Amino acid sequence: MDLEDAMENWSSVKKFTDEEVEREKLEKIFELTTKAPTAFNLQPYRFIVLDSEEAMEKATSSVIPVNGWIRYADKIVVLVGDEEIDVNADQVLEHKLEEGRIDEEKAENLRKMYFDYKNRDSEFMTGWLTRNTVIPATFFMLACKTHGIGSCPVRGFDQDKLSEKLDLKETERPILIFPIGYPKEEDRNWRRPGGEIFEIR
Ligand SMILES: Cc1cc2nc3c(=O)[nH]c(=O)nc-3n(C[C@H](O)[C@H](O)[C@H](O)COP(=O)(O)O)c2cc1C
Q1: Could you report how far apart the first and last alpha carbons of the chain are, in Å?
Q2: Which residues pair with 177 in a beta bridge?
Q3: Which three-class secondary structure state does DSSP give residue 122?
Q4: In this protein, which residues make up the domain named Nitroreductase (predicted)?
Q5: Helix (H, G, I), strand (E, B), or coil: what is residue 140?
Q6: Which of ligand 1's atoms lies nearest the C-alpha of 156?
Q7: Domains of the chain by range and CATH?
Q8: DSSP letters of 70-138?
Q9: Considering the entire predicted model, what is its pTM?
Q10: Is the dihedral of CA 179, 134, 185, 144 positive or negative?
Q11: Cα–Cα distance, 142 to 8 (Å, whole number)
């Protein structure tokens, strides 16, 4: 399915067949997901794929009761954002240096600037993490859809409980979870017409 069809036919999937999502397909989906933009290209996120029954239980026991259906997914993918927003700064800067796009002095200034962002207040950090994970989340869901895999973004879970169960770093926060699998049933929901969501000034 191409991207336009995937967007046109989007629906969150909450009912799945028994078919397993193949490892190669998952690898392709995550390869596409890495193409998502993030601020300064810092990519302060990662995905954890819960595949075994034991691993999935960590998510199913952390959701609010209405989300109990997630246990029937083939896998549960957890998107984690890192408050240590410069966690990948060395790699990002190394690439820029190698490509000759910056020199050492500029790299040092950038490193300091990234570091300073970490000392802002928690409201700023929440905004930063949200912005820098929802775009990768969208790339992920659309990559799934174009490869025939259904998903649904789920936020109804206890963040602290899930962090503990997944043994996340102190600076990491689970942002969204995505039950995934081959779709069994899909309900298409109403959307506002395109003309209603923008104005030209
Ligand atoms: C940020 C966010 C959080 C969501 N959380 C949940 C959730 O906790 N449980 C759930 O069943 N669906 C959840 N959804 C899915 C929405 O209910 C669904 O996308 C919406 O009803 C539109 O339906 P559609 O995606 O099938 O078009 C969430 C969606 C978003 C974007």
Answers
A1: 35
A2: 78, 154
A3: helix
A4: 9-182
A5: helix
A6: 8
A7: 3-85+122-185 (3.40.109.10)
A8: GGGSSEEEEEEEES-TTTTHHHHHHHHHHTTSS-HHHHHHHHHHHHHHTTS-HHHHHHHHHHHHHHHHH
A9: 0.97
A10: negative
A11: 11
Rounded distance between C-alpha atoms, residue 142 and residue 12, angstroms = 11
Kindly state the tokens that stand for 24.
Answer: 């190669």
* Spacing, Cα 141 to ligand 1 middle (Å): 12
Q: Report the C-alpha gap between 75 and 81 in whole angstroms.
A: 20
Say if CB 149 and CB 186 are below 8 A apart. no
Span from the CA of 152 to the centroid of ligand 1 (angstroms): 6
Task: Determine the atom of ligand 1 nearest the C-alpha atom of 14.
Answer: 11
pLDDT tens digits for range 110-146: 999 999 998 899 999 999 999 999 999 999 999 999 9
Alpha helices for 147-189 (secondary structure H): 159-165
The Å distance, Cα 69 to ligand 1 centre, comes to 13
Query: Residues of the chain whose pLDDT is less than 70?
Result: none
From CA 18, how far away is CA 16, in angstroms rounded?
7
Give CA 31 to chain center in angstroms.
13
